[in-house]
TrEMBL record:
GO MF term set: DNA binding; zinc ion binding
Cross-referenced InterPro entries: DNA_Rcmb_RecR (IPR000093), Hlx-hairpin-Hlx_DNA-bd_motif (IPR003583), Rcmb_RecR (IPR023627), Rcmb_RecR_Znf (IPR015967), TOPRIM_dom (IPR006171), TOPRIM_RecR (IPR034137)
Zn finger spans (C4-type): 58-73
Keywords in alphabetical order: DNA damage, DNA recombination, DNA repair, Metal-binding, Zinc, Zinc-finger
Protein name, UniProt field: Recombination protein RecR
Annotated family: Belongs to the RecR family.
Length: 200
């Protein structure tokens, strides 16, 4: 159904392209924005523009950041000997929310998935191995990958490369249901999963 205004229709179309956003939700947001004063709408549009303009990947861990290296990699309070390996930047935020992990991170940017034609060279495994070789003092990798076939395959591949280098490879415990993304796990379950990690 075409809306009354072409401008409103374009806004709804763009909002509906966002993940998890249907047309009805997009219409509600567009109508809500119309009720807001100009300053509120301008602040939102500036925040969105700044997000695209200022956010980049940390050159060390590949988390998203507005400074390089990111605050986690820059912090002297973090345990540099333990690196938590995750699939996406959103997983860093999920784990940080628990306040249980005090090491550093490595964001792979995906997982090995032969069905999707994603091999080890398409994700940041080589960069992880380079971090180990370059003498960052990494003693343990904690694999916090989604508990599905791709996460397992990626974990086995990393383990195969890292163990001969004298690095312990552990993974968070399987209290997390198979096929579930980390972002949907509650803090208590994720905290227990970290406490119950085991060798790969």
């Amino acid at each position: 159904m075409q809306l009354i205004s072409e401008t409103l229709e374009q806004a709804v179309e763009q909002l509906a392209r966002l993940p998890g956003m249907g047309r009805k939700s997009a219409q509600r947001i567009a109508m809500h924005l119309l009720k807001q004063n100009d300053e509120q709408v301008l602040r939102l549009s500036k925040a969105i523009a700044d997000l695209k303009k200022n956010i980049r990947y940390c050159s060390t861990c590949f988390n998203i950041t507005d400074q390089d290296p990111c605050p986690i990699c820059s912090s002297e309070k973090r345990n540099t000997g333990v690196v938590c390996v995750v699939e996406e930047p959103k997983d860093v935020y999920v784990i940080e929310r628990t306040r249980e992990f005090n090491g550093r991170y490595h964001v792979l940017g995906g997982v090995i998935s032969p069905l999707q034609n994603v091999g080890p060279d398409e994700i940041r495994v080589n960069e992880l191995i380079r971090r180990i070789r370059d003498g960052e003092g990494i003693k343990e990798l904690i694999l916090a990958l989604n508990p599905d076939a791709e996460g397992e395959a990626t974990g086995y591949y990393i383990n195969k490369l890292a163990q001969p280098m004298g690095v312990d490879v552990t993974r968070i415990a399987h209290g997390i249901p198979m096929g579930t993304d980390l972002e949907f796990i509650d803090d208590a379950t994720l905290t227990r999963a970290f406490a119950g990690r085991r060798n790969f």
